[in-house]
Amino acid sequence: MPTFVYMTRCDGCGHCVDICPSDIMHIDTTYRRAYNIEPSMCWECYSCVKACPQHAIDVRGYADFAPLGHSVRVDRDEEKGVIAWRIKSRNGEIDLNLLAPITTKPWGTAIPQLKDVPAPTQEQRDSQQLYNEPKYIRMDDGDVHTLKSNGLEMKKGVTY
Amino acid sequence: MFASNPIADLATIIPLDVIQGYVILMFILVVGGTIFDMIHKKSAQYFFAKAKAAEASRTRELGAGDKIGIAASTVAVDMITSGEFCNPKRRVSHLFTMYGFILFLLTTIALVFAYPTQEAPGIVSQLWHLGAAMVMFGGYWFWFFIRVDVSAEGVPWHRIVKADLFILSLLGTTTFGLVWSILHSMGVAPWNTVFLALFIISATALFGGVYWSKFAHMFFKPAAAFNKRVIKADGSRENLPELGDLTDPELQKRFPDIPEYMGSNPPNMGLGIKREPPRHY
Question: ipTM score here?
């Protein structure tokens, strides 16, 4: 279900408007609070939910991980560098708390200094491959890693 | 100029009973408008329904002492210093507007009911003018630069929507009141009468338009701020997760990713996306 805003919590700061990748979070011209102008275009990325400093935006998660009537709420704390999730079922029997790091270094201290990296050669520029592609797809180890090279087989059907 | 009582001059052309009756009528309109606003928006009903639903998630019962403490911190942080605002400019502008309005309102009541003559203490009249000037400073700063329509949505300052009823009528009341007082003390006729009429029209729109404007925010915002603190104290937290202390060994045992990736004593990571104020166009 798309995002919705608790009007009593929202202070109209605009962080959600700034971060929404679909540009569908807007400030209401009457109440000057945020709202989702086009719910059918919301892909439930949770960006606005995490960015809201007032915890004023909520989303109902997908039914495949929480049944109807549940609540999925999130608290992204930048200063602590962690994100906490709480998934609670309608009757309260399941109350799952999760905590995970979102950064290991202070924000803004680990920006790649690309100007110090040697520029690509003419051969690399003319190549079909993207910048650093051989390195990042691990062709330097020998060749592209495949299921076969790792001794795995493709399973048919839905597997978990 | 600023030490003279504008209400005493007004009482020479309008009977004092009429002026006092007008102020009482405005008070009744504010009370009535707030009640109608509450019924229309179902805000009280919403708050009580939310509080009832949160009862099941409470982890501790709050005593009277706890609630008094929460009320005290709500008054000290959220009300007196406008602590809700993340944007410091918005907060300073709100403080000017809020304290200016309180000063303007209290001195108007004092001048109308206690000192309706020129023998009124000069300080009361000076505070009346100061209150109006404070509202104008905070209000015009907000109107031209800070409000989200202008600063974020990129619309011109002169585009007016229904949400502007409160701020415009407030600015109109204080601006026209101040200009009227100055023109009157300088004896500039008939402009003083024109500005007096504009002052009365704006004040009537401000106090009579509560149902359509955001005037009632001064009553329900403290209630919302109080509720926000209560849900943290009683553990219901509106189903939000609790972050806890990252250095706590018990927490690190439950979530081993924390010590593995961040160390046993994670540093303060500072601000990430919140380093930049939202500026969306």
Answer: 0.74
